[in-house]
Amino acid sequence: MPTRKQIVDLLSPIVERRDDVALFERTLIVKPVNSLIRFVFLDNTSASYRYDATWCVLPLVDPRKLNALGPGRGTIRGTTGLWDVLEPASCNDFEKTLDRQVLPFLRSITTLDDYMALEHQESRSWRWMYPFDLNLLCVDLARGNFAAAETWLANLYADEELQRRMQDGRSYAEIVEPLAPLFAARDRAGIAAKLREFEAISVKSLGLEALWEYQPFPIEMQSEQGG
């Protein structure tokens, strides 16, 4: 598997040639980091000098699992499958693939609405088994989409077994309990403040303070407008 130095040596020139990309450990991060983090992660494989690459977009308003960046949702493949850090043709092909396909796509996703559109495009064949998604609840609240948030919570409250599992895993106490009363009161400013706390936890856990930039949540703008 490639060493960390080999990965850094591969990615450093790519970062130097682009103003809106940062190197973070074995990850390329598209700047700015705000409500979303968009990145390309290079993962080790069992094959010598070969690595796998995936792209991912994650919202920062759900802090439960954002303590490290890892493999993403979209696989990036070259003409020979896995990428090779010692093969110049493979390195060139990787950079071209980033420029032609991956980075333009990631740059196009700039808002929470874009993220939700991406979520809806993804296959959700498993959704019937998991009718509640804390990540999407947080995003819908940040978007000020109270109708969608009400549906998420109704699914949760209708499933006692799901509530029990979430309580055992602390997700209920960490996410639902702080947000549910604010949502019941339709307290937009309170919801926005709590989501800002969640976002700050994510940014600190990932060590991305230097890259993060403030971006208003739609619900914050609705609060300012008295909506």
Give structural attributes.
alpha+beta, 14% strand
Q: Care to describe what's here?
A:
This protein is of the alpha+beta class. Helices cover 50% and strands 14% of the residues. It is built from 9 helices and 6 strands. Strands 1, 2, 3, 4, 5 and 6 form a 6-stranded antiparallel beta sheet that branches. Strand 1 and strand 2 form a beta hairpin. The radius of gyration is 19 Å and the shape is elongated. The model is unreliable at 125-131 (pLDDT under 50).
Helix-strand string: HEEEEEEHHHHHHHH
Quaternary assembly? single chain
Strand content: 5-15%
The value of Rg in angstroms is: 19 Å
Give the CA-based shape. Answer: elongated
Share of helix among residues?
40-55%
Termini distance? 53 Å
Alpha-beta content class: alpha+beta
Unreliable spans are 125-131
> Count of helices?
9
Largest sheet: 6 strands, antiparallel
Q: Give the beta-strand count.
A: 6
Q: Quick check: average pLDDT?
A: 83
Topology:
Elements: H1 4-16, E1 21-24, E2 27-30, E3 36-44, E4 50-59, E5 74-76, E6 83-84, H2 88-107, H3 112-121, H4 134-142, H5 146-157, H6 160-168, H7 171-184, H8 188-206, H9 218-224
Antiparallel strand pairs: 1-2, 2-3, 3-4, 4-5, 4-6
How would you briefly describe this protein structure?
This protein is of the alpha+beta class and 227 residues long. The protein has helices at 4-16, 88-107, 112-121, 134-142, 146-157, 160-168, 171-184, 188-206, 218-224; strands spanning 21-24, 27-30, 36-44, 50-59, 74-76, 83-84. A hairpin with a 5-residue loop joins strand 2 (27-30) and strand 3 (36-44).
